[in-house]
Amino acid sequence: MTSIVILNGPNLNLLGRREPEIYGSSTLGDIEELCRAAAEPHAIAIEFSQSNHEGELVELIQAATLNGHNAVVINPAGYTHTSVAIADALTASGLPVIEVHLTNIHSRESFRANSFVSPIAIGVICGFGPVGYKLAIDAVAQMLSTNRS
Questions:
Q1: What's the pTM?
Q2: Whole-number pLDDT of residue 148
C-alpha cells in the first residue's frame, strides 16, 4: 500500500488558538482528519506527526524511508527559514517532498519567503489554508500513479 508521512513543525499544535486571523480556526486535529479523508479515495495510508523540536523532525524524516513511506508532505513552519538539518534529512531520505504552508509565505514578512525546503521539494503549496494539505495528497497520488505507469 502507498503511504506518506505528513510532518508539521513548531507551533502548529497551537492552530485554532494561535493568531486565528492569520492561520484560521482549524486545529491540527481538523487538518489530520482532512488529510485522512483526502488520502482514503487514493488508498494512501498516512502517518501524521507534529513536533516543536528540530531533532525529532529530523528523526521522523529519517524513519520515513526505513518505514517504507513513499513520500513526505511537510509544513516545516518556523524551521522553513532556518533548518539546514531538516533540508539535509529530506535530501538524504531520497523521497519526493511536497512543502505546504497554510499562509502565503511570499506575502508576509520578507524573511518568510526564504525556504531551505523549497529547493528540495517537487512542489510548494502555500496560501490555501488547510486545503493545501489535501492538494498535496492529491499531488502525491497523481505523481505516484504516473511514476508507476
A1: 0.93
A2: 64
